[in-house]
Design goal:
single chain, globular, 10 helices, 2 strands, 276 residues
């Protein structure tokens, strides 16, 4: 079935279900959209279960990840907003830069994607995780956010890199907001909303404009594998609110450390897979 033996199919589905649970929970807990879990897992599944080429696996992993993050990010963003953790003024300021960054990142990924994105993903996320872990108790670098124009440039860079890497934007948004003296729970809640601006248009572009590779697994439309998405989306949506509720009980420093450790583990695994 789907080109797999029954045993392979069952093990692949189990991996995807666990992926959905972790992605949903971390999306709610850390405001990271779930992409840091989706991308490496999809990359592994497409390569080793469906025997896709490394370049194909990475492009499909980013496109499928962005699609899967839409309902997960909605669930997390709604839960965070209900708890007063979303800075709507910041979202308004960042919106133009985010939308433009998504379009640029999607074009680059669609036409020039490949295994180099896996190396970029691992490298950027490792640096990000080490910075967050080592600075968990450090004072913010700036007393407040910069002027609006600079914020929009930051939003553009976050969105562009996030779409290229198949992540929701929260992975890069959280440490930047923390460095600008935004309270950790507020930065996590706001980053959930940022993820929506990244994953929705990014997924649409990947779905409609990307050319499906010849060695893509069954059920692939554009650069999105719909079968993988169906496995992870329902369970991730269920676990996102649980992560939000759990996060309210944890101190800001502990949240930063959890974020950094989770990010470091998946980044090292991703980088090692791309290089070796």
């Amino acid at each position: 079935m789907f080109g797999l033996e029954i045993a392979e199919l069952i093990s692949t589905i189990m991996i995807l279900l666990i992926c959905g649970i972790l992605a949903g929970f971390l999306a709610g807990l850390l405001g990271i959209g779930g992409g840091v879990v989706f991308v490496p897992v999809f990359y592994f599944v497409f390569m080793h279960a469906f025997h896709a080429d490394g370049n194909t696996a990475m492009v499909l992993a980013t496109g499928t990840s962005l699609t899967c993050m839409i309902p997960t990010s909605i669930s997390a963003a709604v839960s965070q907003h209900r708890r007063g953790n979303t800075d709507l003024e910041l979202i308004k300021n960042w919106a133009p830069g985010l939308i433009l960054g998504v379009l640029v990142g999607a074009v680059i990924s669609s036409f020039y994607g490949g295994e180099w994105l896996a190396i970029l993903f691992g490298s950027v996320m490792i640096l990000n995780s080490l910075n967050t872990l080592l600075r968990a108790k450090a004072k913010p670098m700036w007393a407040k956010l910069p002027r609006v124009l600079v914020q929009r440039i930051i939003g553009f860079c976050i969105a562009c890199f996030s779409v290229m890497l198949g992540i929701g934007g929260g992975t890069l948004t959280v440490p930047i907001l923390n460095a600008c003296s935004v309270e950790p729970h507020k930065s996590i809640g706001t980053s959930s909303a940022v993820s929506l601006f990244v994953c929705v248009p990014g997924a649409v572009v990947m779905l409609l404009t990307g050319t499906t590779p010849q060695d893509a697994p069954i059920g692939t439309l554009g650069l999105v594998n719909l079968l993988a998405a169906l496995c992870v989306v329902p369970i991730s949506v269920l676990f996102a609110p649980l992560g939000v509720r759990f996060g309210k009980k944890i101190s800001p420093v502990t949240l930063k450390r959890i974020f950094a450790i989770a990010l470091f583990i998946v980044s090292v695994r991703m980088l090692a897979g791309a290089l070796f």
